[in-house]
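Each record in this resource describes a single protein on a pair of labelled lines. The shape at a given residue is found from the number at the same position. The record below illustrates this layout:

***
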Amino acid sequence: MSGCSMFQSFEVVSRPEQAAPRIAALRALFPKLGINAFLVPHADEYQGEYLPPSAERLAFLTGFTGSAGIALIMEKEAVVFVDGRYTTQLAAQVDPALMSGGDLVGEPPHVFLAGRRPKGLKLGIDPWLHTLKEIEQLKQALSGFGGELVLVEDNPVDRIWSDRPAEPKGKISIQPDHLAGQKASEKLGSLASMLSGKNADALLVSDPTAVAWLFNIRGLDVAHTPSPLSRAIIRRDGGAMIFIDSDKIDDPVRADLARLADLAEPADFGPAVTDLARAGAMILLDPAQAPFAVVRLIEAAGGHWSGQADPVVLARAIKNAAELSGSRQAHLQDGAAMVSFLHWLDCQEPGSVSEIDVAEALEDARRRTGDRMQNPLKDISFETISGAGPNAAIIHYRVTTDTNRMLNAGEMYLVDSGGQYQNGTTDITRTFAIGTVPAEQRRFFTLVLKGMIAISAARFPVGTRGQDIDPLARIALWKAGADYGHGTGHGVGSYLSVHEGPQRISRAGGAVLEPGMIISNEPGYYLPGSFGIRIENLLVVTEATPVDGGDRPMLGFETLTWCPIDARLIDTALLTREELVWLDAYHGEVRERLSPLVADAAERAWLEAATRPLT
């Protein structure tokens, strides 16, 4: 180990028994607030997926620490809604006698309430923690049975959170132009032209990762996601305001930003929106991203707004040449770190190392490789999922000192991890054999691999959406009567969030895939209480080489992730000739690309053995 402090903590941050007194304290506030129910989402005022500790209200109240969920606290009942990634985690983290589990995808709160039709419901919400889209769904559901939506100005969870952490003050840095690929002034100019074309006066940018990309800045407010908590207003005349805590900005950064925009404090955002509305401005905002409180401000001032998808989101998703070049370099470096780590892992005796030991060794490998290649690891891109045996079946498992398990012989080990480097964000999952693994587990591993290869090798027409190709990853499992309860792929940022839209490969992936988009390819299979499998590479959408006789333009994928796939888990009899050829070609490229970057002779020998052809 390097001796450096870890980017990840393995301490237990919540326990099921914490919820009972906190929910009781929240309910005690209901009469004064004029409500008999309250919604507590996993969200902050910026609607980010990853939150600073000061905004982790859902975890504080219920004990559930996943990155997606919402609690409905009623007078006699409480329900925590999560998606398929978190059903096992929810059961472990919340008290079943106090709260039941709900389906965030199939039956979210508005659908749940419409079905239950609780008499006399007065549902409280914090308008800064819900989007306009969410509020419209709730209002429609409540109108069906005479329920009432009550907007609560001061969040009651904050009232009972006596030791709530302070808001973050992470310092801001500038992302240099040679990595950003486009000057911030050019990005702002494009938005001003867009506003002129739509005859709109201003655009509200309420997503901090969009603000970070737009102004070419990065921050330290949220663990593993380098975007400062901020908002911006872009005007048709080319002017802009950025709302960010001045304590986070040193003089050189202040000088750079001042050339682009007027600087203001976060508390100035509401008054600035009100001033625009009073002046009669037509304001564009994203109903799926902007807090409902912003809409209230505009309407209260007699202003006008129009809902549309934030144009920054698509512009950010389509990576330019500099961003793609940086990502390729970051993935090669990350691949070299993975080789160092996997060689170390293969040298450990079964039963001698734990999930925490292995997660620490992987982070250390990334640090050492980054220092050696003079491109330091800035952070991990999310908390490493390090799961052995049955723990690997928990899709978003977070190892703690309570759950820490040894890597035992005859089991599979799953590690889903990534690094934040200034030139790119990585995300990779590999599943490994610890000793000799049962044939049935090898069969499922191979079925997952077939799906991963199908996406990697896919060609598809221009205009294809993620949901159109999602079945390619699942068909082998479907034929075996199996499936997995998460999407196949998500967008990835450029030294930004590891989860980035609008692109994704899933049943709900309605965004068109366009050249330059980076997306993950991560099918899996999970048998609760027994084992879990996931194999993940990152890909970039590219224009495909024309085929003789073809009659329309096609797209395909370029692989970004270079790391061996454990051949000990592959049942080659289940692979087609084409799949075997793809796998051997991939491993040949892994060996060719990474060997020059691996400094240790023993590690290079391990890489050579791990990438031998299977045919």
